[in-house]
Amino acid sequence: MWMILLILLISLVIVAIEAPFLKRNGLKKELFVFGCLLLLGTGLCIAEAVEANIPNPLDWITFVYRPFSDLILSMVE
Amino acid sequence: MLGNSLISARQFFILVTLFVIGDAVLYVPSLTATSARQDAWISALIGWGEGFLLTSLYAALSLRHPNRTILQYSEDILGKWAGKAVAFLFLSYFFIDASLMLMEIGDFVTTQIMQETPIEIILVLFAAIIVMGTRCGMEPLARVSELLFPYFLLLFFTLIAFIAPQIKVDNLKPVLAHGMAPVFGGNFRYMGYLLESVVLIFLFPLVKQPRHAAKAYIMGILIANFFLTIITTVAVLVLGPNITVLLAYPSYTLAQKISVGNFFERIEVLMAVIWFITLFIKITVCYYATACGIAQTLRLTDYRRLTLPLAMIMVIVALATMPNRPYFDNFVSEIWMPYSLTYGLFLPVLLLVVGGLRKRLGK
């Protein structure tokens, strides 16, 4: 619980640092991308804090490249 | 867009050197020795030729598109949508690379130096430094690398000089006992690290004189290869191939073994400092390329606004990528090289060929 509060606090601090600059200069698109990344980041952090199962990107990479790797390694070893 | 910062060819040379040494200095000895055993040094020597060819390719590609980053000219060459797809693939590669190295720092510190500290603390602290470095822009970072380079040289040669009395030449024998095939197996892992230098192609447009930058790129990777070959050879010479393979961080163990006159010992944290210097440069370059690349692809004006939220994602991705050490070792040793090959060789060659064809047909 404390962890989630802490994460939300950090997100708020990040908004406090960046949002005034973006607002003042009227950078709509930047604000949108910034908001998306922050939402994703906060979501992932909370998921990690409650020990949810976060998918591992390396699993996908391994799935794609395994046949190729086996082919090369069978030649050299 | 790129912060209007310019770096000199000399600074670029140092950036390339420190970048390529990066995390390789700790992992390469055991990775090459996995397959090549006592011939690991030959695997590293072959890397010199590969490094030369790869950087020549990157330099040739960059010189054809002056003042544009790889993400921009992939759109020029392949058209809007295919170009954007390639750009996002590159961005994912930069980001995964940055996250993996962040995890390597966390794993190293928590297993070797501070066993009681939770890994999240190390990751968040290091991510904070990287964000600070990235927000300063590339010009200050290039100057920092220039400042840190002499310290790196001093520490590296101190390590080599004090471990030299323990060298046993017998550890290298027999040379090529099983033919060349295992040597190429070792080189397979080594090349995965060389291919990561494709990230630096992103910084190429920042260098003042492109001609000199091309030379600096090639020289930088050759010098980095020199250091990596030395550390691999010394690790095998001192520890022997059987122990080098088993260790997670052979160069660190090498530093632990230093003992001169029962007085000058326990200087292994020096080795860790070498690693912190090179890895800081490497992660920051990757992170800068990610943040700046996202801004360029989405046509945003300032990449700095993206650095803080992106760091949150990076820390979590870093935690997710290493469920346990054997999984990670297996990934680095078998999957990393083909994965890097896609971005380090296949896509640049594709861009070069398609760009050349379009130019010829356009005339």
UniProtKB/TrEMBL annotation, chain B:
Q: Name one GO biological process term.
A: spore germination
Where does the record say this protein resides?
A: Membrane
- Keywords of this protein's UniProt record, alphabetized? Germination, Membrane, Transmembrane, Transmembrane helix, Transport
InterPro entries referenced in this protein's UniProt entry, alphabetically: Spore_GerAB
- Coiled-coil region: none
The way it spans or sits in the membrane comes to: Multi-pass membrane protein
| Domain of life per record | Bacteria
Keyword Transport tagged: yes
Fetch the Pfam families from UniProt.
Spore_permease (PF03845)
Gene Ontology cellular-component terms listed: membrane
Q: Which residues cross the membrane?
A: 12-28, 40-61, 81-105, 117-136, 148-167, 187-207, 219-249, 269-294, 306-323, 335-357
Name the PANTHER family on file.
SPORE GERMINATION PROTEIN A2 (PTHR34975)
- Family named by the database record: Belongs to the amino acid-polyamine-organocation (APC) superfamily. Spore germination protein (SGP) (TC 2.A.3.9) family.
Q: What is this protein called?
A: Germination protein
Q: Which organism is it from?
A: Brevibacillus parabrevis
